[in-house]
Specification:
Layout lengths: L20 E2 L11 H12 L9 H15 L6 E5 H13 L5 E6 L4 H8 L3 E6 L18 E5 L11 H8 L4 E5 L3 H4 L4 H4 L5 E6 L1 H5 L4 E6 L1 H11 L7 H8 L1 H28 L11 E5 L3 H10 L2 E2 L1 E2 L9 E5 L3 H15 L1
């Protein structure tokens, strides 16, 4: 009955232990203010819940959202979370008989969607530096080349020159920029004239994880293909469309939250460096670090009520941990627990 080419295992899980600081899922530590949420809920109530979202509504919402992010509406597709941007790339450029390259360690959904779509994926393990080279894809005949910038969990950016070299191969080049709000630099700014560039972004990391919102930036041809495969707007709910439509109301709060996260991210890095825990530079809302006693530290933190992510099971990261940047108070709890463990 089930596909024989897939090993069906337990789905993605996180710790369910009690916590004082939840720093394990790269979420924003801040929620929208109550008055803003009340305003948005009133807008959702105005929709007819017994009716499907309509294409005309989608077009108008997309035009308004595109204006807020400064791009043309024909270059944007709205998605159900950032994961759907990744799936879209495999739907339009992958499939049986087609080849993609995935660089790891990275977000597991790339390998997952390759399997789900029957795409032949060549996995290149780069280790903790996550630095692809043209030799990994030039002349290899890939239909889809994928990058993550900033990468999860390493936190580093991809050199624009590497992305340009990938674009010159003629493959669809997908760049996951889910953490763009914390990096504030994008390959889109320099390479948007390439019709085969596809950038996926998420609003989950900056404050809307529970709402599952993402979007694609690309050429009109690619956007049309994405919306066709997703049957837009039926991939979205009225709630999605309201939130996209009111993004101008939401955006200032996301930006302020991201400002605080960026400041706290650098504070965490400084302290971890002082404690000789080898933090890596990060342009995202997390910091990866490493210690030979990583499992001992992870369990100590968990027992202290501080949940972080053990990423040592990812390729090339045998003794690495990742901490999401929380509120200053949560970060204090994390850092004090780490100091205690070091002592």
């Amino acid at each position: 009955m089930l596909r024989e080419d897939i090993e069906f295992k337990t789905s993605f899980t996180v710790s369910q232990k009690p916590y004082r600081a939840k720093l394990d899922q790269n979420e924003s530590p801040y929620d929208l203010p109550e008055d803003i949420k009340t305003y948005l809920l009133e807008r959702v109530k105005e929709a007819a819940w017994n009716r499907y979202p309509q294409p005309l509504t989608y077009s108008k919402v997309k035009e308004r959202f595109a204006g807020e992010i400064g791009v043309e509406p024909e270059r944007v597709a709205l998605t159900f979370g950032g994961d759907q941007t990744i799936l879209s790339a495999f739907l339009i450029a992958g499939g049986p008989g087609r080849r993609a390259v995935v660089f790891e360690p990275t977000y597991p959904m790339f390998r997952h969607y390759a399997i789900a779509t029957g795409t032949e994926a060549e996995v290149v393990v780069l280790g903790e530096d996550y630095t692809p080279s043209p030799e990994h894809f030039v002349g290899k005949g890939f239909h889809l080349i994928t990058f993550v910038s900033p990468n999860n969990p390493t936190g580093n950016l991809i050199d624009t020159a590497i992305v340009r070299a990938a674009l010159e191969t003629g493959a669809l080049v997908f760049v996951d920029e889910a953490y763009y709000p914390f990096a504030r630099v994008s390959v889109w700014e320099e390479l948007r004239d390439y019709p085969n560039l596809m950038v996926g972004r998420s609003l989950s990391k900056s404050m809307l994880a529970g709402m599952r919102m993402g979007y694609v930036l690309s050429s009109p041809e690619v956007i049309n293909a994405v919306e066709h495969m997703l049957f837009a707007p039926y991939n979205l709910t009225h709630t999605h469309l309201v939130l996209f439509n009111e993004f101008g109301v939401i955006k200032p709060h996301l930006n302020r939250g991201a400002d605080t996260v960026i400041y706290e991210r650098e504070r965490i890095r400084r302290v971890l460096a002082e404690l000789s825990l080898n933090p890596f530079p990060s342009y995202a809302n997390f910091v990866m670090f490493k210690t030979e006693r990583h499992r001992e530290l992870y369990e100590f933190l968990t027992d202290s009520g501080v949940r972080i992510r053990d990423v040592s099971g990812l390729p090339g990261l045998s003794n690495h941990l990742r901490v999401t940047v929380g509120t200053p108070e949560e970060n204090d709890l994390f850092l004090e627990a780490v100091r205690s463990w070091v002592r």
